[in-house]
């Protein structure tokens, strides 16, 4: 638009109205002939036009240079952000020759995944395979088994490869869909499994990852096997898709039902610590044949661990500089100390955890200072202990700055255990069991073989002997030491496990088992589950319980409680029942002295005190009861009931005598009978 305006101005100057030439200035008489005057005017206007065009050209050149500078600055900014960890690696521009190509992709991944070069090569080869061989229809691009120990970079390597493939245009999305197959461990999870599998297959990502296939129900593994081998998995029912969710169509005749699933051209990738043999054992030989590639990580060499440690420390230095405004300096001693944190249980992840502790400890130090810090922090190792020094001050132990590990839960349980009257052998058994758990945890952390001890047990004894109390404390104790994830105690009886009609018992029992996972399942009067060979519902509950114990042996403790004789008969109901309960603990009846101690503790917890003059009669009463009918007296319940009656009698006494002490329970408040007094008098005379 600028050019047209300039040209119009020039023409208006050269020609007047009606297109007649302008010779000279208005009102001035020219001395040149008309032709020379016109020529001179046109030459002048041409110079003006050339000058305008030159100015416009220079402006365009300046604009292009500014755009080029801005583009270069934005590219440099992306690279700087990437180097500082503020931008994901691989998001900056890739060389033109690498777009749409696997050329150099393995080398890019190896720069991030250290010490696993053969594994990275095999992984990139597995991801490249469908681009070379091609795929048919909606069949899986490739079926890949990625195996190796925890902490060897299996997941991280795949993420790095997927990110680089997405940058190069080899994948539409770097984000995979993931399924934890341990969530579908029983036939009752079929609908949930199919819904989740359908959603994962429909997800935009081109990778579908499967974790923990070893814990999946065999029927669901057959569906995955069909997807991998045949590229099509027929379903047992017809399903409809409603708002993206697979819903059982039932008997309804509806168009557009889904009768089978396909892989939708995705990579099917299985993660495991085991190789082909375990895969064949769970899926069958056909599945192993369908696996296109097995990519296995290896053990780290000392040099590789040192490189990984250096990488972690470099990342730590960036965090310290960005968040704490300090420059971090660490030598080979710190690098080697971090590398030595590697163990078989956590793998290379232990190195990152060590650096995370360094950062948290340094953060605690900065938070303790009134002013923000600047300068340099030096890390050193002294006597196998990390030390730090800020601006050349005296070095201090670094990890000592971290808050101490919380042990309140464990201490509280131990205190409650100590307060329990009697049951010395049973309390010692709980302590021994906990000690074994902790030793096995230490062996696992050191990479040694562990020996799992079956913790299912039978509590046998009369009512009121503390079976439920010990079970509750055991659940909390095992959680406090990390042996159980939940620590809840689920108390049930026959009515909670046995259904009322055919086909109801197994789902009911499985539901109870699911609610107790991570804790303790306590079945009181367990012998009532078995009422003879004709009790098909009870036998079904027992069979389901035995299978659930086997399937969840690492995340469930089952305790059966009941009378000694009845429990012995109960163990014959199922051939595998007795072998799964090797720990049969007998709860003895309380002595009179123990019941007296229990009564005094219960009274104290309620804000009362028993008069010393009442104790001989109370002890005599308990001794007689336990000697004659301990199986029906109630043991601990006898102490509780006796105390509650005394409190009620004291209330009547205080109503008549308001000045009497409110907290004291007298001999008269206890309804013990003359027999107790006579026994107490006899005992006193014997002592004299």
Topology:
Layout: H1 2-14, H2 34-83, H3 105-110, H4 117-133, E1 142-147, H5 154-167, E2 177-180, H6 190-202, E3 207-211, H7 218-229, E4 233-242, E5 245-248, E6 258-261, E7 267-272, H8 276-283, H9 285-290, E8 293-296, H10 302-324, E9 327-330, H11 332-339, H12 349-367, E10 376-382, E11 385-390, E12 396-397, H13 408-419, H14 424-445, E13 457-461, H15 467-480, E14 489-492, H16 494-497, H17 505-516, E15 520-523, H18 536-551, E16 557-562, H19 564-570, E17 583-587, H20 592-605, E18 609-610, H21 615-633, H22 636-656, E19 664-665, H23 674-687
Parallel strand pairs: 1-7, 1-8, 2-3, 3-7, 9-10, 13-16, 13-17, 14-15, 15-16, 18-19
Antiparallel strand pairs: 4-5, 4-6, 10-11, 11-12
Q: Your description of this structure?
A:
This protein is an alpha/beta fold and 688 residues long. 50% of the residues lie in helices and 13% in strands. The chain has 23 helices and 19 strands. The strands form five sheets. It has a five-stranded parallel beta sheet, sandwiched between helices. A five-stranded parallel beta sheet has the order 14-15-16-13-17, with helices on both faces. A four-stranded mixed beta sheet has the order 9-10-11-12. Strand 4 and strand 5 form a beta hairpin. Helix 20 (592-605) crosses helix 22. The protein is extended, with a radius of gyration of 41 Å.
Main attributes of the structure:
extended, 19 strands, single chain, 13% strand, alpha/beta, 5-stranded parallel sheet, 688 residues
Number of beta-strand segments: 19
Low-confidence stretches: 23-29, 84-92
Sketch the major β-sheet. 5 strands, parallel
The percentage of residues in β strands lies in 5-15%
- Estimated helix fraction: 40-55%
Q: What's the average pLDDT? A: 80
User: Order of strands side by side in the largest beta sheet?
Assistant: 2-3-7-1-8
Question: Based on CA inertia axes, which overall geometry fits?
Answer: extended
**What's the tally of helices?**
23
Rg over CA atoms:
41 Å
Structural class: alpha/beta
Distance between the termini: 128 Å
């Amino acid at each position: 638009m600028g050019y047209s305006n300039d040209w119009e101005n020039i023409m208006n100057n050269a020609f007047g109205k009606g297109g007649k030439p302008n010779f000279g200035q208005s009102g001035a008489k020219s001395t040149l002939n008309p032709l020379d005057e016109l020529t001179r005017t046109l030459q002048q206007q041409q110079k003006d036009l050339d000058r305008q065009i030159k100015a416009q050209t220079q402006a365009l050149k300046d604009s292009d240079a500014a755009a080029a500078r801005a583009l270069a600055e934005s590219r440099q900014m992306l690279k700087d952000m990437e180097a500082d960890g503020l931008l994901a690696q691989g998001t900056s521009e890739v060389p033109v020759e690498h777009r749409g190509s696997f050329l150099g992709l393995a080398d890019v991944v190896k720069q991030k995944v250290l010490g696993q070069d053969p594994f990275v090569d095999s992984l990139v080869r597995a991801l490249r395979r469908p681009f070379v061989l091609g795929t048919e229809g909606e069949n899986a691009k490739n079926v890949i088994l990625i195996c190796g120990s925890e902490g060897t970079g299996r997941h991280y390597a795949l993420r790095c490869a997927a990110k680089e493939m997405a940058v190069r245009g080899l994948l539409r999305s770097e984000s995979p869909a993931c399924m934890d197959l341990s969530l579908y461990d029983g036939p009752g999870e079929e609908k949930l499994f199919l819904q989740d599998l359908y959603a994962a297959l429909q997800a935009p990502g081109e990778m579908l990852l499967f974790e923990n296939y070893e814990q999946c129900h065999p029927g669901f593994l057959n569906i995955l096997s069909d997807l991998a081998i045949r590229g099509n998995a027929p379903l047992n029912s017809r399903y409809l898709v409603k708002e993206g969710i697979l819903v059982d169509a039932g008997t309804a005749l509806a168009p557009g039902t889904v009768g089978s699933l396909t892989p939708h051209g995705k990579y099917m990738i299985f993660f495991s610590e085991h190789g082909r043999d375990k895969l064949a054992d769970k899926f069958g030989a056909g599945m192993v044949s369908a696996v296109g590639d097995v990519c296995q990580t290896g053990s780290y060499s000392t040099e590789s661990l040192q490189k990984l440690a250096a990488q972690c420390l470099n990342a730590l230095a960036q965090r310290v500089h960005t968040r704490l405004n300090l420059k971090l300096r660490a030598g080979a001693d710190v690098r080697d100390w971090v590398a030595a944190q590697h163990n078989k249980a956590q793998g290379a992840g232990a190195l990152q955890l060590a650096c995370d502790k360094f950062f948290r400890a340094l953060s605690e130090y900065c938070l303790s200072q009134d002013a923000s810090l600047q300068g340099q922090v030096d890390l050193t190792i002294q006597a196998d202990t990390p030390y730090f020094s800020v601006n050349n001050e005296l070095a201090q132990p670094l990890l000592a700055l971290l808050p101490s590990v919380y042990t309140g839960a464990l201490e509280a349980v131990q205190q409650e255990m100590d307060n329990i009257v009697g049951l010395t052998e049973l309390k010692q058994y709980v302590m021994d069991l906990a000690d074994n758990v902790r030793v096995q945890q230490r062996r696992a952390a050191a990479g040694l073989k562990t020996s799992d001890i079956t913790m299912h047990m039978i509590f046998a004894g009369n009512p009121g002997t503390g079976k439920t109390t010990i079970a509750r404390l055991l659940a909390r104790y095992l959680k406090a030491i990390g042996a159980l994830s939940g620590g809840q105690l689920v108390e049930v009886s026959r009515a909670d496990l046995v259904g009322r009609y055919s086909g109801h018992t197994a789902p009911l029992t499985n539901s109870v088992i699911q609610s107790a996972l991570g804790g303790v399942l306590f079945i009181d009067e367990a012998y009532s589950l078995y009422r003879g060979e004709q009790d098909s519902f009870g036998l079904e509950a027992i069979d389901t319980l035995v299978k659930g114990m086997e399937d969840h042996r690492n995340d469930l403790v089952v305790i059966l409680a009941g009378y000694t004789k009845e429990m012995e008969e109960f163990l014959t109901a199922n051939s595998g029942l007795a072998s799964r309960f090797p720990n049969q603990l007998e709860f003895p009846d309380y002595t009179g002295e123990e019941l007296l101690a229990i009564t005094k503790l219960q009274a104290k917890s309620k804000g009362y005190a028993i008069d010393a003059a009442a104790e001989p009669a109370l002890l005599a009463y308990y001794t007689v009861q336990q000697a004659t009918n301990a199986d029906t007296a109630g043991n601990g319940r006898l102490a509780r009931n006796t105390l509650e009656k005394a409190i009620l009698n004291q209330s009547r006494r205080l109503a008549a005598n308001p000045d009497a002490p409110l907290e004291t329970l007298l001999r008269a408040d206890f309804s013990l009978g003359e027999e107790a007094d006579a026994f107490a008098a006899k005992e006193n005379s014997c002592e004299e």
